[in-house]
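Researcher: Predict the fold of Dephospho-CoA kinase.
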Amino acid sequence: MQAPWVIGLTGGIGSGKSAAAKAFAKLGIHTVDADDAARWVVESGQPALQALVNHFGEKILHADSSLNRAALRELIFTDAEQRLWVEQLLHPLIRQAIEESLAQARSAYALLVSPLLIESGQHQRVERVIVVDVPTHIQVERTLARDKVSTEQVQAILAAQMPREQRLGYADDILSNHGNLNELELQVAQLHKKYLQLLENPHD
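Model: Structure tokens for Dephospho-CoA kinase follow.
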């Protein structure tokens, strides 16, 4: 079976990527989340986890031998060389896991959800890019409520991500998520209809 059309979905922290992805999934669309793929490749028993332990030692493990992400983050957060080593180990495996999951899609098109869709170059893999967009102050409010972190931490994450205007420059389609869930789902339904029409008439 031919690999499906793949549409990328991205947005800054607290923009509502997960809610948008769920709305597409409710319409029967096969969705692959890059964050999920990043978890799959370091599950217990996976070679990548053993490679991390060989490199950093067992201090990066929980008592049940699963990866302690917070401990790993702490080790690489201030050490660019170690962070690069981890990225070179994991990124090819994550890409492979994403491709394997996309290949299983049986829906009209598939959705790749990734917070770093543009920064990682994954946007070059997709037919269209959807950006879930909200004003920055709403990003901060939602992230504070969801993650129970400090305002300083949220601002640091925002500073590390691609600026809003730059991200919007890559968008083929925009989901404006400053309203409620019903409004978001209506926009998703409209995009879904548009994509089905594009698939039927690709040269329109």
